[in-house]
Design brief:
By secondary structure, the chain is mostly helical. Helices cover 32% and strands 8% of the residues. It contains 11 helices and 7 strands. It has a 3-stranded antiparallel beta sheet with strand order 5-6-7, covered by helices on one side. The chain has a two-stranded antiparallel sheet with strand order 1-2. Strands 3-4 form a two-stranded parallel sheet. Strand 6 and strand 7 form a beta hairpin. The longest helix is centred in the C-terminal third of the chain and has 18 residues, at 286-303.
Amino acid sequence: MAAQDDPTPWPLDSEELSSTISTAAEPSDIKTLHGRGYFSQLGVVRRKPCRADAPPTLSKSCSDKLSMKQSTSLLSSATSLLISPSNAYLHTLILPSSQYSETGCDRAFGPQGRMKSVVDREWEGGYSFQPFHVGTTTREFSFARDRVRNGDGGGGKTMGVQKPCGVSVVYTPFKQETLVNGIVQGRRQGDPRGASMVCRRGMWRATVEVMEQLKLPDFVDVPGVEGGPMNSPGKATLSIAESVPKSGKGEIGKDEGIEEEENCETAARRSEEELEEMIVDQATHLGTQEQQHERQTTNSEKKSTKTYAEFKKIKLLQYRKTVKDQTMELALKGWVKNVGDDSFWL
């Protein structure tokens, strides 16, 4: 709306506005706006995808998710058990200046916009509302939508019709995998073994493995972790998370910052040939990785039959749940919890 010549919201028919979707997980009177329409309704939570011909989902728009991260930090439920959220907040969001709307960003993310109800709020467990700064850059991505549409490939080169590639690589110094349309290469869609190692189940499993090696009693209430006494009634601790030094949001030493920047530049210069070589290399080792994954799955299923929904209800995650619930109630009204796919287990 803010990018239009006349950003004044146009009137909306009351019958149109009453159009709703409901889920079995929420009361029938819960209403959410469609992702595609109702653009004159400002500051509301929207669903993805926005395509009119796509089936509706309860996945939130990117701006809504980023707004929530200002309260819950960048950590997921699983990783918040191991790392303190106090230093895990986004500091700066960089947008292309050609796509930047100051009014829209202030309304979506700013302390004077829809998030003003949680400004200066602090919660237990190291959580607090920490708004990020929105900056801009004149640099454009070579394959940005507008450049492709205008046939400008950069450097005077002309580009044809561009389609997004369905192949992606997950690379860490310790593990790598190749995904084709979100599925591990060599697996069929719907096969549980085709899930990425960074999916929610994979992150849950990795967290459990770390907890078992640490052997801390506070973690025994986590589904999948073996041994140790239960937490005493009324006592909820964050163990390792609260033992992490609180040195300030995003704080980094001067030398460390320079080294980090150099590392990022080095990674950015990785050639396409090296990437292709890495994909081929990953495919070669795929069989071995799948065998390891199958063994891990078998062992984990012996340890726990609790679902992901039960995992998110443990005492150690109650701080995070409180933060999210209050942010939804006070600032991000209309946020409907997406609990339709949390019945899986390790």
